[in-house]
Amino acid sequence: MLDDVVVSMRHVTKVFNPGSPDELTAVRDIEIEIRRGEFLSLIGPSGCGKSTLLRLIGDLLPVSDGQVAVNGKSPYEARIDRDYAMVFQQATLLDWRTVGRNIHLPLEIMGHDIGQRRSKTKELLSLVDLEGFEDHYPWQLSGGMQQRVALARALSFEPSLLLMDEPFGALDEMTRERMQMELMRIWNQTQTTVVFVTHSIPEAVFLSTRVAVMSPRPGRISEVVEIDLPQPRRFETREMPEFFARVTEVREALRGFSEVE
Amino acid sequence: MVRLRNPRRLVRAVGAFLVLLLAFVALWEGYKVLGKATDGMVPFTNARLPVSPHDVAMPHVWEIVQSLFIPAQRGSDQILLTGLAQAALFTLREAITGFLIGSTVGFGLALLFELSRPIERGLMPFVIASQTVPLLAIAPMVVIWGGRIGWPTWASVSMIAAYLSFFPVTINTVRGLRSSAATAVELMRSYAATRAETLLKLQIPASLPYVFSALKVAATASVIGALIGELPASLSEGLGRSLLTFSYYFQSGSERLFATLVIAATLGLITVGMVSLLERLVVPSARRLES
């Protein structure tokens, strides 16, 4: 069972600027196990530390206390082994590179030759439905298209883990829903484990197999809601009564935090 | 090859330049006419005009142009324009050499500062201080030192040009190297990219628009450095000497001085133009900081 666990966090705490006047405890005593192939959303009020948690998994920040294991290794080892990919809210494409060259940037760094890079790029463009845009530049694409390129880039080296930090946050509602469907289609195809940070309850419920609800700073995982909606998720899923029930459940779990006693 | 994507834009730019040039000429002549009418006083006041409108101090524009086409020296048939062009070319060589050295040093320093913050903190005050020491004090020293180690004088002048051009390149390149979004740096980290890869694939390409901005400043700075450097070097071949000579003869005919100034100004246009051309080839238009 143990190698079914992709990410495990035990008593994880992160304190910024310890000992100084602007000391900040972002997250405290986080306990969670993320299983292979699941889609876990992290949701919580602003400042609850969800993005910090993601960066602790990705070895972009060191933990202050506790243990994080990714694929049984330390986050540092997992990063060096390129076990995961990140997608941010800003697509962060390099605007001096074409779409194609942006997509195979990780492959370049990992030493794949030009032939491998080209064929992989073609495959990915077709996966994210952007065929023919290989030679375009990022500024020629809409926000949604740029995020699709960012997603293609993240999947280029076939990581087992995808860390996503509010990737659709900057998009309008309709594009957002389309992108959610796209992400579901891709997730079903690649079977990657996903940790997804979001502000949106419907988004979390629609996409996930489990939703981890976080408390305000210092963030703890206060509740984990199982989302047993049928797979694969479809457009109609959003209109099912079970969907509303889960959304309500998550909303109730979050409600305790926004009410002033 | 340089693609002229929009020829009409070029025509409009040239047209705008000519219009402004004509406007300047009109202003110049208009000032003279007005000034002569009030005999050098600001109209309706008792204050003197700062620049004398009379022909000795302010020759007519056509007199300035004309002076380019008559012999400048006794005993020689060579028209002023030819002489100035030769001098300008001499100064241009010094300026370009200085510019190349200065920008390379500037870029190298910026890389060093980016790779090591402690070095940046330690060296930066000295770098800044070096720029505030008056050039006219340093220039003769550089010429003397160059002479002692056997350099031709023009090489010493190039060093003075380099001295003025490295600083803008350093400052702006550092800024450019640090201009990437935090998420871009995180991305490179997530790919386990080495420091060198992050520099080569992210920071340096991101810095190019800033670098070219700085190179334009450095281009003009190198011309100024070359002109000023020539003065203590007593170089007879450069434009600096021409400027000096014609300023001595100001009273007997300032047209030649103004003509020399115009030629010196064109040097600046030429050097910046070369940088802009290079920028056009290297940086796509959407990323350039200036048009």
Summarize the structure.
The complex is a heterodimer of chains A (261) and B (291). Chain A is built from nine helices and nine strands.
Reconstruct the topology from this structure:
The complex is a heterodimer of chains A (261) and B (291).
Chain A: E1 5-16, E2 24-35, E3 39-43, H1 50-57, E4 65-70, H2 75-80, E5 84-87, H3 99-103, H4 105-109, H5 114-127, H6 143-155, E6 161-165, H7 173-190, E7 193-198, H8 201-207, E8 210-214, E9 221-226, H9 241-258
Helix pairs in contact in A: 5-6, 8-9
Chain B: H1 7-37, H2 61-67, H3 80-115, H4 117-132, H5 135-148, H6 153-177, H7 182-190, H8 195-233, H9 239-248, H10 255-282
Helix pairs in contact in B: 2-10, 3-4, 3-6, 3-8, 3-10, 5-6, 5-8, 6-8, 8-9, 8-10, 9-10
Task: Walk me through the structure.
The complex is a heterodimer of chains A (261) and B (291). Chain A has 261 residues and is an alpha/beta fold. Chain A has a domain at 2-83 and 159-254: P-loop containing nucleotide triphosphate hydrolases (Rossmann fold). Chain A is 36% helix and 23% strand. Chain A has helices at residues 50-57, 75-80, 99-103, 105-109, 114-127, 143-155, 173-190, 201-207, 241-258; strands at residues 5-16, 24-35, 39-43, 65-70, 84-87, 161-165, 193-198, 210-214, 221-226. In chain A, helix 5 (114-127) crosses helix 6 (143-155) and helix 8 (201-207) crosses helix 9 (241-258). The longest helix of chain A has 18 residues, at 173-190. Chain B is built from 10 helices and no strands. Chain B is mainly α and 291 residues long.
